[in-house]
Amino acid sequence: MRKTLFDKIWSSHVVEEIPSGPSVLYIDRHYIHEVTSPQAFDGIEKRGLKVRRPDLTYATCDHNVPTKNQHLHIKDPLSALPVAKLLQNTQKHNITYFPLGDPSNGVVHIIGPELGLTLCGMTVVCGDSHTSTHGAFGNIAFGIGTTEVEMVLATQTLMQYKPKQMKIEINGSLLPGVCAKDIILHIISKLGTSCGAGFFIEFCGTTISALSMEGRMTICNMSIEMGAKGGMIAPDDKAINYLKDRNYSPRGEEWIRLTGEWKNLASDKDARFDANYLFNAQEVYPMITYGTNPGAGIQIRENIPYATESNNPQSFYKSLNYMGFKEGEKLLGKEIDYIFLGSCTNGRIEDFRLFASFVKGKRKAENVIAWLVPGSKRVEKEIEEEGIGKIIRDAGFELREPGCSACLAMNEDKIPPGKYCLSVSNRNFEGRQGPGARTILCGPAVAAVSAITGVITDPLEFLK
């Protein structure tokens, strides 16, 4: 029987199959952070258990941390407590931890690949929904709940039902100024936020192959916004070259052996999927959202649709009312208040390079407050080494320190009520970036040009 990439990884990690029940799946890499791990550690200690494989668990603090003055004590006690607990728990259980200020610190889904902890053909879990990011390297990677974090800590396994499988293929060359974020927002706008429920998605096609690893991570990151369990892309030479000589990457004969295996990690030609979708890259244009879910997206040059085009008019009107928009309205040229560049979706060095390429030699609009937050200490370092920091500061922007920041506003970085934020993050739910905040999702190019003009701007027109 022909197998998919998912089938191959899944079958090689099944420890036991429970009749008429889930499979016991071995976990290769377990990432933890300060928000979902404290209760899990309490749970195993109450049971008198130890961490089964501390050498396969890695920790960082990212959600609660401030993005300014990280060398100082965290002022907010509600943020300081879980960070302190993470240090305590990792020391007690001999788990590798990258604290604030450490050269390896950063957002968990950015540092995993950066450090070579995320490899190919793995099962990867974390108590965070966007663990799917690691699927860009050909992994079964997905988020888990706190009880499941406890299970992995105690057993290095997880009980899981095998999901259905979906293939999304996209072919062709992208228009200038169109990026990976536009691709995934385009797909979600066409298929909806629930089409992936019960599925694991494999992304493929010439467009996906042409993307950088950063772009592929953005695609897999937001497979969750389709309701999917996760997303993955078959590993190739780009993935292997990205991982070579990273801090934790294998060396010597082990590297040669593994890369030989990774090159064979792909779906068989006639492998069967439960659902298939095909897209044309030439139809992808810079995207923005107008509502309060990632599926409420339009091309930046289009008008907001009418309620008659919606499957749920009541929800449609509620969403527009929250956002302060009207059906049929054009968002191009609408004044904005905040710009957020960062998060596990678009906080990598490639995103800062793209942002800097648009703002170089220009000035930030006076009406815009911009939060530019690197996804890791490594990205922060590369920004300065490549001269991006100078370009950004010369244009009137301020760089912050690594963290999840305004993606979910669990620290001080909250968008005020009623204010509009063009955000390169992954979610635009009500209150996601702060109580009453109005989030418009976009890619780094849209964020950059709009930060210069002060209004929602089409990067393709800006390039002209």
Model description:
This protein is α/β, with parallel strands linked by helices. It has three domains: 158 residues, Aconitase, domain 3 (2-Layer Sandwich); 90 residues, Aconitase, Domain 2 (3-Layer(aba) Sandwich), CATH 3.40.1060; 177 residues, Aconitase, domain 3, CATH 3.30.499.10. Helices cover 33% and strands 16% of the residues. The strands form five sheets. It has a five-stranded parallel sheet. α2 crosses α5, α6 runs parallel beside α8 and α13 packs parallel to α16. The longest helix has 16 residues.
Note the main attributes of this structure.
17 helices; 464 residues; 3 domains; single chain; 4-stranded parallel sheet
Tell me the span between the first and last alpha carbons. 52 Å
Per CATH, what is the topology of the largest domain?
A: Aconitase, domain 3
Number of strands: 18
Continuous helix count? 17
Largest sheet: 5 strands, parallel
CATH class of the largest domain: Alpha Beta
Strand content: 15-25%
Structural class by SSE content: alpha/beta
Strand order of the largest sheet: 5-4-3-6-7
Estimated helix fraction: 25-40%
What is the second-level CATH architecture of the largest domain? 2-Layer Sandwich
Could you report the average pLDDT, rounded to the nearest whole number?
Answer: 97
What is the oligomer described by this structure? single chain
What global shape is seen?
Answer: globular
**What is the alpha-carbon Rg in Å?**
21 Å
CATH superfamily of the largest domain: Aconitase, domain 3
